[in-house]
Amino acid sequence: MTPSPNNYEGYFKNRSIPRKVAVEDLSKEEIKGITQTVFVTSDPHPAADLLFIFGTSTIDNEILESVARDCQQGRFPKVLVTGLSGRLYNETGKPVARIMRDELIARGVPSDLILVQDRSTNTLEDVAFSLDALEKQSISPESIAFLCKAHHSGRCLRTLRKFFPFQTLSPVTYLAEYEGVKVSKADWYKHPVSRGRVYGEYLRIIEYTQRGDIAQL
What pLDDT tens digit does each residue of the chain (217 aa) get? Predict the structure, then answer.
């Protein structure tokens, strides 16, 4: 049974699947199936009642600029930034969500548009812990755009769908880079670094779906 949203502290602290998984060459059919599971198509012109920003270990300045422009154009009446830990937290001691909030404000996003959830340490907690933040502001979005890494988008979509079964969900994705390798839908399988990252996501989606922790699409 999935824990209630008020009892997620410490949940999933110990990952059973590492961030990067060693994987040998894959067949064309395996590549196709993994790609369809892990990646979802990004919305080039998002507009929603809420922009949900998943926690991240890095913050892309170009992405922040784009989010700020969308907010200034009225595409997102509210923005919810999430996340406690990660590389930035380790370096600064400041929750990732608060760093993202400050960066958006510095780019012209009004502070009263931004909600902060700064307790979560993983994707599931990003969503579960955010329910309280929305409830306290009496916000019940009918449509949610969500910002995340492209190779993380399949799991983010399924996690949001678990908690928001009827809302319209629109992905807004960007390419992550590890060891100088960008992880893209088009060619992730061509390099050991990106292949390991994507395959790890694939295994997590399978495991978490089987456990009922995320929605089955």
Answer: 333 344 434 444 445 777 778 887 899 999 999 999 999 999 888 899 999 999 987 778 888 999 999 999 999 999 999 999 877 778 888 999 999 999 999 999 999 999 999 999 999 999 999 999 999 999 999 999 999 999 999 999 999 999 999 999 999 999 999 999 999 999 999 999 999 999 999 999 999 999 999 999 8
What residue spans of 81-120 are helical by DSSP H? 87-92, 96-106
C-alpha of 175 from chain center: 12
Give the number of other CB atoms < 10 A from CB of residue 196.
20
Nearest to 189 by CA among 18, 33, 17: 33
Complete edge-to-edge strand list for the sheet that includes strand 143-149? 114-117, 78-82, 50-53, 143-149, 168-174
Contact 47/78 with Cβ under 8 angstroms? no
Residue with tokens 């997590």: 204
Cβ(174)–Cβ(151) under 8 Å? no
Look at phi and psi of residue 180 and say left if phi exceeds 0, alpha if psi is from -120 to 50, else beta.
left
Distance CA 183, CA 23 (A): 15
